[in-house]
Amino acid sequence: MTNYFNTDLEFNKVWSMQKEFLELIYHDKRSGKITFAEKDEKNFSETASEHAQFINCAIDKDSYVSSNSFKNKRNNKGIYNLCNLIIDIDFHNGEDKDAVIKLLNNAYNQNKLPVPNIINFTGRGLCLIYSLKDSIPVLKKAHVNKDAKSTSEKTYEFYKVVYDGLFNAYDLILDNHAHVDRNVSDVSRLIRLPGTFNTKVVTDDCMEAMCYTMYKHENYYNLYELNKYTVQKDKTFTKTTEDFLVKRMSVLQKLVSLREGHMKGIRNAFMIADGSVCAQRNLDVLRENLEINNTFNYPLKGSKGEKVLKMKL
Questions:
Q1: pLDDT over threshold 70, residue 17
Q2: CA distance 223 to 306
Q3: Is there a single domain that holds both residue 147 and residue 32?
Q4: Containing domain of residue 217, as a range?
Q5: Same domain, 68 and 211
Q6: pLDDT in tens, 234-261
Q7: Mind giving me the DSSP string for 16-69?
Q8: Which of 22, 51, 83, 251 is the most buried (most CB within 10 A)?
């Protein structure tokens, strides 16, 4: 069994660790700018750079880097290239770190989860990074058909679906043993740099506050490979949705009343609309449609009526 969580930290390798980390997550940056940030008790500063740069280890500062590149400013509208998917797991609420690591290590060895390209210990948790084989350009182009979407926009949507499914897969494996922070799915989110310190860690040994790489590999992923491991949760209706559907059915019934049953010419469309509402409320579509059909002055009959009434929605 492979151990994906190496806890041996060699301080003299901090520089090379950070260099290898930046080279790996930006192996296909193509273009755009990387954001580096530092924070201390009083200040927070950001620097945009077209190239990876080394950040000195200051024990009184937190140091970060963006996981994607940006056109200018670091925000969702300015995203230029999607390079990575980040899973962040927190240990700062009393979670059993060793138990979580054991669950993840088993999941990776049993191929229940894809092995991250980088596993970083962040002082109070884990940062798991999946680096894309080919980064995704997020460029909005003018279309002849304004309702059409570019290939990059469609890929971006697929990226978000895969990302959400990957979060669900981790939730399933961890089963409440740790908190998976979904806020990192924000493409403009910063992540901690290995070889720097986490000032939020309260300890007498500064090495326990060091962020470092526990494991890495360079077998990069595409979205389809990651999608094989995702878990898509069933969509359930909230009370608000249920209230809306009840009101929609009430409106349909009132329409029949206002027209005094004269529905000829719109019966098919009406029955499909009614059936759709019934299906979403998990009601017996055929029975409900038959009941409302019988309130028409000229109900649907024969093979045509049966075909509409038995329509599978």
A1: yes
A2: 44
A3: yes
A4: 11-227
A5: yes
A6: 655 555 665 676 777 777 777 777 777 7
A7: HHHHHHHHHHTTT--SSBEEEEEE-SS-EEEEEESS-------TT-EEEEESSE
A8: 83
